[in-house]
Design a protein that fits this description.
The complex is a heterodimer of chains A (146) and B (262).
Chain A lengths: L19 H31 L4 H26 L7 H11 L1 H23 L1 H7 L16
Helix pairs in contact in A: 1-2
Chain B lengths: L1 H23 L7 H4 L14 H25 L3 H31 L2 E5 L2 E5 L14 H10 L2 H11 L5 H6 L2 H6 L3 H4 L2 E2 L4 H32 L2 H5 L3 H26 L1
Parallel strand pairs in B: 1-3
Antiparallel strand pairs in B: 1-2
Classes of the chains: A mainly alpha (146), B mainly alpha (262).
Chain lengths: 146, 262
C-alpha cells in the first residue's frame, strides 16, 4: 500500500496498472458474456412456454437457468464490482457469511413444500379446488392469449 | 460499503426466499409467460418476456457505463466521469420508466375471471389476480348469463371498441351475450392472492433501490462536476456509488430469475 499516496487506506487492493486497452477489453468481454447468458436464459424461458415439457424436464431446465443466473451474479460481482481483485481474506469475509443462504433457501423452501403436502393430505377440498386439471380446456387453449 | 451490501443482500434474500416458500406451498402458481406478455405500443400482441428482457438489458448496459465511470475516476479524468455517470443515470431513469409502465399496465389492464359462478373483470392488484386455472368454455358460458349487466357491458366493451359504453348499456342482456365468444377469451379463475403482494413488494423494493441509486449517482455527478473529487485527490466516492449500482443490477438478476423465468 505504501506507494499509493493518493488513495486512502480503505482500499484493500492494489489497482494493478493494467493498460487502458486491456481494461476495455475485459469490460467488453464481460458485457458480451452477460448478454449471451441472458439470451440463453430467455431462450429457455420461451422453450418452456412453447413446448409442453414433462414436469421433470421443466424442473431440470429451471435448474439450468438458476445456475446460469448464479454465473451472471459471479461475473457482476467479480469483474464489475471487482471483488475478484481484492485480497483473499477480504473476499472471504464477504463470501463466507453468504453461505448462510444455502441453509436459508433449503429450510424455507422445504418448509413450504411440507406445508403443501400436509394441506393436500388433510384438506381435500383445498386440493380439489386448486389442483383441478380436469377443468382445463382441451389442447388449443394451451398458453395465454389474453 | 461491502458490508452494507451484504446486509442488503440478506434483506432481498429474505424477501425472495419467503416468496419461494409461499410458492412451494401452493398447488397452482401463475405462469409468468402469461402474466408478462405485453409490450408498450404493441396492443394486444402476445409477447411473453419481451419487455422484461428490455429492462434487463437496460440495467446491464447502465452497469457497464458505471464501470467505465469508475475507471475514468481511477485515472482522475473528470470529464470522463461526468460523461459516463450521465449515461448511467439515463439508464436508471429508463429502467424506472419501464417499471412504471409495467405496473400501470398490470394494475389497470383488466381481465375477465370466473368467481362465484359469475364473471368479473379484475386487474392485477394486491387483492387478487386474474391468472388462475383456465375455465371450461361451457362453464364460462353459464357464468356469462349469471353476470351482472354492468360486467357484461364492460366485457363486451373490452372485446369490441366500436360501440360506445352508453350504447352497450342500453342493450338487453341477451344481445350483449351474443356479442362475446367465451371460447376465444381464455377466461381464468382467480389465482393465488399472494402473487400480487410479492410481485409488487419485491419489484417495488428493487425499484426503490434503483431510484435511490439514481439519486446517489446524480449527487456524485454534481460533485464531480464541481471538482470536489479533484480537490480531494481521488474518486473513491464514485467507486462506492458504483458498488451500490452494480448491486442493484445484481439483485435484478435474481428478481428476474424468480418472477419472470421460473
Amino acid at each position: 500500500m505504501e506507494n499509493h499516496h493518493n488513495i486512502s487506506p480503505e482500499v484493500t487492493f492494489a489497482p494493478h496498472h493494467a493498460s487502458d486497452a486491456e481494461f476495455k477489453k475485459k469490460v467488453r468481454n464481460t458485457t458480451i458474456l452477460l448478454s449471451i447468458i441472458t439470451v440463453i436464459e430467455l431462450g429457455f424461458g420461451f422453450l418452456m412456454y412453447a413446448t409442453d415439457f414433462s414436469y421433470t424436464l421443466d424442473l431440470f431446465i429451471k435448474g439450468v437457468i438458476i445456475i446460469l443466473s448464479l454465473a451472471k451474479a459471479f461475473y457482476i460481482v467479480s469483474i464489475f464490482m471487482h471483488l475478484g481483485d481484492e485480497i483473499r481474506n477480504f473476499i472471504m469475509t464477504i463470501v463466507v457469511p453468504l453461505l448462510l443462504f444455502i441453509w436459508f433457501i433449503l429450510a424455507f423452501v422445504l418448509d413450504g413444500a411440507s406445508y403443501l403436502n400436509l394441506r393436500n393430505r388433510y384438506d381435500k377440498a383445498y386440493k380439489e379446488r386448486t389442483l383441478k386439471t380436469e377443468h382445463h380446456e382441451p389442447a388449443p387453449a394451451k398458453g395465454g392469449k389474453e | 460499503m461491502w458490508y452494507f451490501l451484504m446486509s442488503d443482500a440478506f434483506t432481498f434474500g429474505a424477501f425472495l426466499i419467503s416468496y419461494g416458500s409461499i410458492r412451494f406451498s401452493q398447488n397452482f402458481w401463475p405462469d409468468p409467460n402469461v402474466v408478462f406478455n405485453a409490450f408498450p405500443g404493441a396492443g394486444h400482441a402476445n409477447l411473453p418476456l419481451a419487455f422484461v428482457s428490455l429492462m434487463t438489458f437496460i440495467l446491464i448496459i447502465s452497469s457497464v457505463t458505471m464501470v467505465l465511470a469508475v475507471h475514468e475516476g481511477h485515472k482522475g479524468n473528470r470529464y470522463g466521469v461526468i460523461k459516463w455517470m450521465g449515461w448511467t443515470i439515463v439508464g436508471g431513469l429508463a429502467f424506472l420508466g419501464c417499471q412504471a409502465w409495467e405496473w400501470h399496465h398490470l394494475i389497470t389492464g383488466e381481465h375477465v375471471v370466473l368467481a362465484d359462478g359469475k364473471l368479473e373483470m379484475i386487474g392485477q392488484t394486491m387483492g387478487g389476480n386474474p391468472w388462475g386455472h383456465l375455465v371450461d368454455p361451457a362453464l364460462a358460458q353459464k357464468a356469462l348469463a349469471a353476470s351482472s349487466h354492468e360486467t357484461l357491458v364492460n366485457i363486451v366493451h373490452s372485446v369490441n371498441h366500436t360501440v360506445s359504453h352508453e350504447d352497450l348499456a342500453k342493450m338487453p342482456h341477451e344481445k350483449l351475450m351474443g356479442m362475446v365468444n367465451v371460447a376465444e377469451m381464455h377466461i381464468r379463475e382467480k389465482g393465488p392472492i399472494a402473487f400480487g403482494g410479492y410481485f409488487y413488494g419485491i419489484t417495488g423494493f428493487h425499484g426503490f433501490h434503483v431510484f435511490s441509486g439514481v439519486v446517489i449517482n446524480f449527487v456524485m455527478l454534481i460533485m464531480a462536476q464541481k471538482g470536489v473529487f479533484d480537490r480531494r485527490g481521488h474518486y473513491l466516492m464514485i467507486e462506492k456509488a458504483g458498488l451500490y449500482w452494480h448491486f442493484v443490477d445484481l439483485v435484478w438478476v435474481f428478481v428476474f430469475l424468480c418472477f419472470y423465468l421460473i
